[in-house]
Amino acid sequence: MAVSGIVCQRTTDRAALATRKVGSLTGRTLSAAYRWYPFFWLGETGWLLPQRLNRDEVDFYLESCRKAGFNVVQVQTVNGVPALNTYGQSSLPFGFRFEEIDRPGIYGYWDHMDYIIDTAAGKGIYIGMVCIWGGLVKAGRMDEEEAVRYGEFLARRYKDRPNIIWMIGGDIRGDVKTEIWEALAQRIRSVDSNHLMTFHPFGRTSSAIWFRDTDWLDFHMFQSGHRRYGQGVGENHEILGEDMEEDNWRYVEYTRSVEPWKPVIDGEPIYEQIPQGLHDPEEPRWQACDVRRYAYWSVFAGSFGHTYGHNALMQFLKPGVSPAYGAREMWYEALEAPGFHQMKYLKALMLMFPYFERVPDQEIICGDNGRQYDRVVATRGNDYMLIYTYTGKPFTADLSRISGTEKDAWWYDPATGQLTYLDRYVSGKVEFQPETRQSDEHTDWVLILTDVSKKFTI
């Protein structure tokens, strides 16, 4: 089953898709019949963007995201009941009543949200809107009737914006307050049938556990979370066993096995510079090489994209704000983090080749695929294959899994995007030894192999 990139409009009418452009993210046309456009989701986690940044800061942040290749920013639409933004405006000045939410002469909370969405649209960025954080609903801060009114308001306000992706839930299990999430999702969908919708679940779970057959969920999302191997506490192991905490590729395999099949993405992996295990600031911090590993493992296993996060960016830490999770940098300093700028190389790689035919294929790797950090993950199209190795140990690949009797090979550096031509090989089983770098900073590589007869331009 192909790893289809989702088109960011919700429709089953392929004829309609033939004449539409996907916002400003049109990409390449791969099907002359239906003019499907590939969309590789490269997300940035900007949870507290609506609350913490002013207009000038919004412009600077979103422009930085655009330059770094991000095309989705995930936000908490409200992080409190009510939420207050940097202008001191409340998200719910009249409670869950929105008839007079736009007040003359007042730049209100939702005016600022409009500005964020419209500014993002001008930069080719979608806003993934977590409507309300799950912990608030779990604590009883929104009931089912209020969810219906809130969903109606959100959908009517934003149904005609081109760059909205609805995200129900918010770091919560789908079996907690399910009736409220259903009410919110169904009411939004009843008003807005154009935008995609998913569910952002609790750590180490997938939306596929609870929302397999629901008609409002267009693609699945999982949260692989922030724990390292051995930090599990025996909970939320519907998918993973013990000592598998970092194996985010397992969530992809699980979710892709669920019927009916829907696309899948890791909506919250480890964040750069957040403590391992999340809560103890004395623990080691996740580094750029770790966020790369999570991204390539997930995408090569079959995700249609990936969401990056940074500890300081997701909370927009700034002077006068108390840090959470041991954050040390200001948000604008974190825009220079190496992982923030390295994600674009994954996006560039995936858009380098025919998009809609790509499938995960572990049979490419001969023998043992490796355990934990030694895991080698492979994906391919009809005439190309990509293999990711984190530790740089040698592996053997079956080149006959793609077309052609001769294959050209390159090493691709996930940290720099640099390509190095390797050699030409006759189809068969070939052992590869990743190059040794002079630096010890990272050991991960992608091996690219293509059918010589197809004349790929790399």
Q: Unreliable stretches, pLDDT < 50, 5 or more residues? A: 11-35
Number of strands: 17
Mean pLDDT: 91
- Helix share, percent: 10-25%
Describe the sheet with the most strands: 6 strands, parallel
Taken in chain order, the helices and strands follow as HEHHEHEHHEHEEEHEHEHHHEEEEEEEE
What structural category arises from helix and sheet content? alpha/beta
Q: Outline, from the CA principal axes?
A: globular
Could you tell me how far the N terminus lies from the C terminus, measured between alpha carbons in angstroms?
26 Å
Provide structural commentary.
The protein is an alpha/beta fold and 458 residues long. The chain is built from twelve helices and 17 strands. The strands form four sheets. It has a six-stranded parallel β-sheet. A six-stranded antiparallel β-sheet has the order 10-11-12-17-14-15, with helices on one face. Strand 7 (220-223), helix 8 and strand 8 form a beta-alpha-beta unit. Helix 3 runs parallel beside helix 4 (109-122), helix 6 packs parallel to helix 7 (178-191) and helix 8 runs parallel beside helix 9. It is globular.
